[in-house]
Design a protein that fits this description.
Layout (H helix, E strand, L loop, with lengths): L1 H53 L6 E3 L5 H21 L7 E15 L1 E13 L2 H5 L5 E3 L9 E10 L7 E10 L4 H6 L3
Parallel strand pairs: 2-4
Antiparallel strand pairs: 1-2, 2-3, 3-5, 5-6
Amino acid sequence: KQWYQRRVAITAGITNNLSESCQPIYRKMKQMILFSLFMGLVASEVKLAEREIVMGLPGGIYEGELHSPATREAVKQALGEFKLRALKSGRLGSSDSVIVGDVIDVKTQVVAGQKFIITVRLGLTSDSDCKAKSQDGFVSARVCSDNENLGLHKVEIISQPWMAVKYQFGEFEDVEGPELKSLWVDGAN
């Protein structure tokens, strides 16, 4: 028993002496470890940010390119579908035109194809001056004076170029201005 207590005392003395003499080294090592961990975190955040820009989040919604050919075609298809549904719903007569303003925003999402969420200024007019300036039932808001019937709307369209029916039309939302959602829903039937 005495032998054991003596051994413990000697070991404790050596450890204490070692600890005191190694304190600056331990402190330095601790600082280097913390610094390495911090740099690793910073580097991983930078890499993560790079990855989000390059790879994106699967299924996430991103800013679309307003002037890309795919976006232009999606806008063209959405406007054509809007006109068709307006005719089917009875809200667009032969003396009426679809007023087309600026495309404000386009978001994209990879689904079973490419989803476009298009925010556009859109409306219907029976103004004869606007009708005279229209082409194929569409008139630019820049040349049509009937701006009170122009509103801000969102339409979703999915492009699936490998399918027989290349475009599918989803939700329509009235953001501000005249209510056109009922036209979109009624014209779908």
